Sequence to fold (1050 residues):
Amino acid sequence: MKKYNKHLMTYIVLTAIAAALPLGRDVYVQHLLTLTLILAIYALSYNIIVGYMGLFSFGHQAFFGLGGYTIGLLSLGEASAGRSALPLSLAWPVWATLPASLLVCAIAGYVIGYVSLQMRGVYLGLVTLGFAMLIWMATINERHFTGGVSGVRGIPPFELTLPGLPTLELSSPFSFYYFALVLLVFTIYFISRLTKSRFGRALVALRENEERASALGVDAFKYYLMAFTIAATLAGLAGFAYSYYLRYITPTALGITFLWSAVIMVIIGGTGTLLGPVIGAFIFVFVPEVFRIAEELRLLLFGAALVVVIIFLPQGIYPSLVSLWDRFILRRQERKGIEGEISK
Amino acid sequence: MDWALFAQQVFYGLSNGMAYALFAIGLVVIFGILGIINVAHGEFYMMGAMIFSWLVAIQGVNLVVAAVIALAVGVIIGILSNRLVVQPIYGKPSFVLATFLATLGLSIFLANLATVVWGAFPINVTTPFSLVVRPGGIAIAGDRIVLFVIGGAVLWLLMQWMSKSLLGKQLQAAAQDAVSARLVGINLMRVYAIGFGLASVLAVVSGILMAPIWTSNPYMGPLVILKGFIVTIVAGMGNFRGAIIVGLLLGLVEAIFGQYVAVQYREAVGYGVMILVLLFKPEGLFRR
Amino acid sequence: MRKRIYVLVAVVLAISILVPTIGCQPQEAVEKGKEPVKIGFALATTGPFSYDGLLEAQALAIAVERINNAGGILGGRMVEGVVRDHGYVTENAVTAVNKLIFDDKVDAIIGLEDTALIWAAEDIMHQAQVPYVEFGGNPPGWPEAADVGAFRIGFVMDQLVSGYFTYWVEKGVTSMVVAAPDTTFIVDSYSEVFVPFAEQYGIELFPLITYPVGTPDFLPQLAKGAAYDADLFLGVNFFNSEIPREMMGMQELGVPLYAKLFDIPTEETIVQVVDAAEGVIIPSMTAFVYDDNPVMTDFREAYAAKTGLPAPHYWTSNAWMAFHALVYGMEAAGVTGKGDLAAIDAGIKAASWRNLQGDPVQWTENGAIVYKNVILAQIQGGKFVKIGTIPAGPAPPDIYGKVLPPGTTDVGAKFPGE
Fold:
């Protein structure tokens, strides 16, 4: 119980720090921070597969993009006429598009997971990549339905009206930041509860030794499918935020670049941890911006930095920070112990 | 049915397929032996094509000399990449993901390095073989014939070497079963290093052969890497002969599908087949 | 293990030192009224399109230097150019524009030369009341009349295609294969501009929207297009990486009459494929670098004086023109236009610099400066040779915003025989 409180305090402090970050900064930094939080949700969802399940998926970008596209297609209204090549004007409000996009991603995750989760290792990664590429190709080619390479333009701003409450409208990076922060806190809370539940323990047991866990009666496929679906749904949540934030979505959002970004964020940050992917998202967004001091070389430097970090910290930055901290504490306790003995 | 058009598509399909096979066999070597996905393989191929094209088209170097230099530089890049990027992480927990990311970083680095060195403007190289003959209305380009002849020779030599020489046999053994290979006393680290070097040679060779057929630019790598994955998977892990056949078939199917079914979905065929093979024959079509 | 700790400390230190410096540009104290006019250049200086972006940045630097040597604008204020890379990626365009507006605090923005880029970022610029000039790609119907402070320099697709169709109809062409990559603005232009024009002129159109940008293996698709035996094979392609290959492919397949839309081939590109390009006809309204209009003459001379090289291709000359339209517009308006879009709008339209209003350019109703005529050039002996000028004709009435029913003639339509 005491330990739980300590963790809770840590998270409250971290949230407070996060809430203070965009204060007094210009819109550019607020934009980067908002982008970081949205990508952090995406990275956390990918981490469920890579970190907690210990499996590969190279098709996670499809769920991110599907979430975004669902919003794009359902939310277009009369006001978007002329700004969009699509003949759609459904004009669904936020409270309807959110469950719709989550549902679409959950179904897609369930179906793709159901088909491919018999596979393991790199094979699973490549079969999910195959599905993602097929979805990407269909998005580009079926332009009467998806807007094609031009994407969906003119997504209305995020506007939530609940009875008895004033309308919540998020049209600036600053206001959207706090919405994204709420989503991120929810995601972290959800995943931490998930990992502590019986379900989460079963997942970890499967990751550590699938054969033994299966022998003990854990239905591996069922658990994997469940976790895969949850991960897809959370990726859809990130896509939802991304789509409403940029108010424009193109096939890039379900293309291979978003696979690379997920891999970079999760592995650089640290797989199987709660804060690792968040740190990874922060690095993914901010480091290329730092390298803007050499505009033409920034991607070159970013690539080199990735290699260097992964060589020296193959487990990711967050776990290394933790072990450093542990060692620091340990040494202090040792010293204290020695001092205590001397004083006796 | 226009048979000349059909023959034309078959010719283009097979020659594209030859390039896929040459490219993919390097991926098969690395994937088979080390069990890792080398995302930077496309950039090794790009480096080969760029160095060769730059030397021939811009510096006016003799074709053979340029090819030798490109091969030498390519091998050095391959060996250095193995030594500096892959080896330090290899064998550690979750190294498959770590090497995936490390080689991804390497590919970003190499593509941008090539842009800084040569610029993003594509280099087009013309060889003495860049002629076209039209027997029966079918356009046959000399460079594609060169690709068939040299590519076929390289693949044949590779297969001979794999099945005849001791080192080749060790390589194949390690590709098929690393644990047993170690049991019979094969020095795996040495085999890994040689495998990586061999793979980069093959990537560079395919780059050099493709340079006169497609243009070379620093961002040509990612366009073929996914085809390489498809070939690797469909053929089956560590299966070299299968990779050659599947590579050729992939090019052929893309061309025929584009001509007679739906041109905008021709690349979907490869992914579709990959998914089906993984689902119903996960050990690959050609696994012995 | 010890090594690892040092590395970790270094990483944490690096992050903690570098990150707070983001978004904190040093503000120098400058005399009021003498502070530089900052103009942001949002270009692709990395990635596959850096070839264009770096040349544009170079031309813009020359233009900035020349303006400053002549004493600056607005009563002696110097012009300062800030280049920010967007790498031709939508998300990065939003980031680059945010950086330019809120961190670099620019007074105006030039660049974002593609439909997707301008669409992603235009609301930000509009809300921040920063005027912007787009000079490359072709969002159909953009800018709209209501977009005060938004400008486009270059060409308008419907006028280009109109003049072009007129030319080929006169030559007796009744069927056309259009081969193009599936890039944003080409696909949009195709369905929204080509199809209506083809209907108007009664031309049978075979769409061949095939190769993704940069795909090396498009010869099978070209072979498919060639098999239709249309009167004209039109390559709609503007990527330098593909043009030489496309021309050589058409030659390889023995396509008798083929042409290119857009004048991207530079002499550099042409030299690569000199035999294959021989005789190819290229229509253009886009600041034809080799044309003798005053703006281009000015650009050529300034560029050659600085670098000793011939002027690069048209994106660069459009960037040059965009810059001058903007600074002379500021001069005419008497303000930079930041926060006062109506003033800069009037200023740019009133600026009388080097024929921006006269021949060969004109204003559209929406706020684009475009070329009046379609210039036809042919490649003869590795050089562009101008073979004619055609005034742009009238456009079909409902050319934009028309969404075609699936099937029939639109992109992705079934080809005969499929």
About this structure: The interface with chain C takes residues 2, 5, 8-9, 12-13, 16, 57, 112, 115, 119-122, 124, 132, 134, 139, 141, 210, 213-215, 217-220, 223-224, 251, 254-255, 258-264, 266 of chain B (CB under 8 Å). Chain B has a mean pLDDT of 87.
